[in-house]
Structures are given as structure tokens and as C-alpha cells.
Amino acid sequence: MRAVVDKDTCISCGLCVSTVPEVFEMDDDGKAVAVSDTTEENKESVQEAIDGCPVDAISDGQ
Ligand code: SF4
Question: Which residue of 3, 12, 27, 54 pairs with 33 in a disulfide if CB–CB is 3.0 to 4.6 A?
């Protein structure tokens, strides 16, 4: 499972990248993208990023 960012909604605030840098990066277009899968180890941090996104642009990929 990998989180999915709706690029049309993302406002490029960078919060998800700060919260889980091993999963989220800023893409060339300045929008966040999930570059690795959600794991047992990082799932709580990924959920924190999902909950923290100010525009609800991240889904858990399910
Ligand atoms: S927290 Fe949300 S709005 Fe901010 S960069 Fe990540 S996906 Fe985009």
C-alpha cells in the first residue's frame, strides 16, 4: 500500500514531507508525491501526515 496525493488539491505546504521524509517528497512540479510504500514501521507517521494535510489531499492508497 502506498499513500496517494491528489496533486490538484495539494498546496505545496511541505508538511507531509517534514512529517515522513522517507515516504513523501516534493515532485518537480512542486507538489508532494509518495515515493515509497506505507509499512508497519511508518504507518502511524503516514497517518499523521494524512490527518495533518491542511487540504486533505492525501489518501492512504486503499
Ligand atoms: S501536506 Fe498536503 S498540501 Fe501540504 S505538501 Fe503534503 S499533500 Fe500537499
Answer: 27
**Å from CA of 57 to ligand 1 middle:** 6
What pTM was computed for the model? Answer: 0.95
DSSP codes joined into one string, the chain: ---EE-TTT-----HHHHH-TTTEEE-TTS-EEE-S---TTTHHHHHHHHHH-TT--EE---
The closest of 50, 9, 35, 36 to 26, measured between CA atoms, is 35
- CB 18 less than 6 A from any atom of ligand 1: no
Output the residue whose Cα is nearest ligand 1's atom 6: 16
Asked whether 10 and 57 are in contact (CB, 8 A), the reply is: yes
Query: Is pLDDT of 4 > 90?
Result: yes
